[in-house]
Design a protein that fits this description.
Elements (H helix, E strand, L loop, with lengths): L1 H5 L2 H7 L39 H10 L7 H12 L10 H14 L3 H8 L9 H13 L7 H6 L7 H13 L3 H14 L4 H12 L20 H10 L5 H4 L4 H9 L5 H6 L1 H7 L4 H13 L9 H11 L3 H12 L5 H6 L1 H5 L11 H10 L3 H5 L10 H9 L9 H10 L6 H12 L5 H11 L8 H11 L3 H11 L10 H13 L3 H14 L1
Length: 521
């Protein structure tokens, strides 16, 4: 009896066979079929579209999709296919398939979508890979307790320090606060995790109730952040030293947008990064700035950008609204700001006096998919200009090929490095079937580009496009656009991606990606 009294609650439950083996009654358990959050009726991809595809191909594609996507529209497309309700491909375990999709979503900064995806699988079905992906998603959204059902049900899935600390936190919030406190105290002596990790866990667990105590967080000696440290610090309202945040990569900025406990001003500061990536829509960005403008917690200096955005929408004259947009855009070509002003740009009247800004206004509108609004400006952009090139790619109802002379003029005036914009324009038009064969040959010779050079990837995405398998095309397109910026993208990849998307019935996505390439290339 003395030994039992010395045990923790979960150890007693394990000894007496009281540990739960499932968290959902048998009648309510879900099959691991059509896992996802978007049905085809809601804009997702067909559920059975991968059912007869080789599991090894799909798995390899998802495993290689382990970083950001250069294109905002490519990111949006990849997110949509990964979030769709899909059956697993042939020879691939459904839980493993879900884990690969969640990992890919985490890799592109879509932790919130990954969290929703993993919640579509019962905790008793989790394996190690899915647990890892789910844990990363919950940390990325600041939802620490979201992992508790799995941690309690399958506590032996992982054996690392963060997992042990998580189980103690979960115990605290299940009413076992004193037991959790003792386990966290022991963690200092056992070395299961570093001191900063344990103290953050203590602070978080302490909010659960009776065993709460004052916990001082000391960052001295901490030389690096981790998702665990960042997420818990945000959740408990602990300031992180600037020495640790000075050189953070964009993934942490994305987390700041997704974690509700992040101060509003910080969320607004990093919204441009999230918008440029495709994590935030233009409307979501405007909502964030609107919250800042309406808040009484910040002074006028903090609201400067929000005030400019308001002027871009409600200033008395179109000229004043355009001037506000110019101020927001700045001189550095921040694409996130173009996303922010997309709907404001769509509200401007078409006039010759704004022709000099037409290309930027068009790029802004296209960043949010407002192609019909952008096409209104076709009357004021001269052939061969940047604005003309964007509309030549984005136009939804074009008949036949574009004028080769206009393309030739664009090449003559292109000042981009290595004529990358021209190469992207030619690749996009060719992929959409909007260039005559002779013109394509002339332009590729002039640019010194070989768009048709084949590879294993190009053969697979081309074949998927020919067969009309939009799901596989979207996954392979996401793989082909891996990279932190457009400098990592090649015109040849763009050509095969646009051509396959167009062939598979994803012409809207093909047009937007092609136009974005010219705008950002």
């Amino acid at each position: 009896m003395a030994e039992i009294n010395a045990m923790e609650d979960d150890e007693v439950n394990e000894l007496l066979g009281l540990r739960p083996k499932f968290d959902i009654p048998a009648a309510a358990r879900r099959a691991v079929e059509k896992v996802g959050i978007l049905s085809q009726a809601e804009g997702g991809f067909p559920a059975g579209s991968l059912r007869n595809q080789p599991g090894a191909l799909v798995a390899a594609t998802l495993q290689a999709s382990n970083g950001p996507v250069a294109s905002r529209w490519g990111h949006i497309l990849l997110r949509r296919v990964l979030a769709s309700r899909l059956d697993a491909p042939r020879g691939l375990d459904p839980v493993a398939f879900a884990a690969l999709r969640a990992q890919a979503l985490n890799a592109i900064g879509e932790d919130a979508v990954a969290r929703s995806l993993v919640q579509d699988i019962d905790g008793s079905q989790y394996n190690r890979a899915l647990a890892d992906a789910a844990f990363a998603a919950y940390l990325g959204t600041g939802d620490i307790l979201g992992m508790c059902p799995v941690a309690r049900l399958q506590g032996d899935l992982r054996e690392d320090g963060e997992w042990e600390l998580l189980k103690s936190i979960c115990s605290a919030y299940l009413g076992e606060a004193r037991s959790a406190d003792r386990r966290l105290q022991r963690a200092f002596g056992t070395g299961v995790a570093e001191e900063i990790d344990v103290r953050l866990a203590q602070r978080y667990a302490g909010a659960a109730g009776e065993a709460s105590r004052a916990v001082n967080i000391e960052w001295d000696g901490v030389d690096a952040l981790s998702p665990w440290r960042y997420s818990l610090a945000r959740a408990v309202g602990e300031d992180i030293p600037e020495s640790l945040t000075a050189d953070l990569d964009a993934d942490y900025a994305i987390s700041d947008v997704l974690i509700p406990a992040t101060p509003l001003l910080r969320r607004v500061e990093v919204a441009d990064t999230a918008g440029e990536r495709g994590v935030l829509s233009s409307s979501a960005m405007v909502d964030l700035y609107s919250q800042l403008w309406a808040s009484d917690l910040y002074d006028a200096a903090d609201k400067g950008t929000a005030a400019q955005l308001r002027e871009a929408y409600v200033a008395n004259s179109a000229a004043q609204r355009l001037e506000a947009m110019r101020s927001l855009w700045g001189d550095e070509g921040d694409y996130g700001r173009l996303v922010l002003t997309a709907y404001a740009a769509a509200r401007l009247p078409v006039t010759e006096t704004m022709a000099d800004d037409a290309a930027t206004l068009i790029a802004s509108m296209l960043s949010a998919g407002l192609d019909r609004n952008a096409m209104r400006w076709s009357s004021v952009v001269p052939e061969g200009s940047q604005g003309w090139a964007l509309l030549a790619l984005a136009q939804p109802d074009i008949q036949g090929a574009v004028d080769g002379g206009a393309v030739d003029e664009f090449l003559d005036n292109d000042g981009s490095a290595d004529m990358r914009r021209s190469a992207f324009l030619v690749a996009g038009l060719a992929g959409l079937g909007r260039l005559e064969a002779d013109d394509l040959e002339d332009f590729t010779d002039r640019l010194g580009r070989n768009l048709s050079r084949r590879s294993a990837w190009s053969d697979k995405i081309s074949r998927a496009g020919e067969l009309g398998n939009s799901t596989l095309v979207a996954m392979l397109a996401g793989l082909g656009m891996q990279g932190s910026g457009w400098d990592r993208m090649t015109p040849r990849h763009l050509y095969f991606i646009v051509r396959a998307l167009n062939a598979a019935g994803l012409s809207a996505e093909a047009r937007m990606i092609a136009a974005e390439a010219v705008a950002r290339g």
